[in-house]
Amino acid sequence: MKNGIVIWNVVLTLLAGYLLFAQFNKKEGSSSSKRAATDSLSSNAPFRIAYFEMDSIEAHFDMVRDVKSEIEGKEKEYSNNLSQLDLTYRKKIQEYQAKQSTMTQADYEKAQMDLKQLEDVLKGRKQDLDSRYQEFVTHQNLSLKKEIEKFIAEYNK
Fold it and tell me: Which SS3 state, helix, strand or coil, does residue 25 take?
């Protein structure tokens, strides 16, 4: 076992040495196009760099506040819908727990099937609500980003 590891290390060392040798002895023809591209980037052409902080935009851009309030409203609606789904499931469980003492085996199995179906339906609704909420937030953020980019483009003219 020890000899196998030593042989493997020797093979890998030789391979690494060959790759280093091959890399440093390459012809300059293939890298000249890369150098031309970097030369055009490093030219002394004038350019401006601007930055902004999202805090100042949130404080002074009305659309950001509107989008935030819409997202918060949608989040409250989402939370209410989730709590309503949870409440529906809990009520059904309590209903079956109240009837538990008078249930037969067939009724018990039917109740389990009913709860499983209800749970599946509620999971589907929750996934639908999740996807709609995420889609809404993404759409709002993208529209806000486009507005900011449009403003910056007009400002840079």
Answer: coil
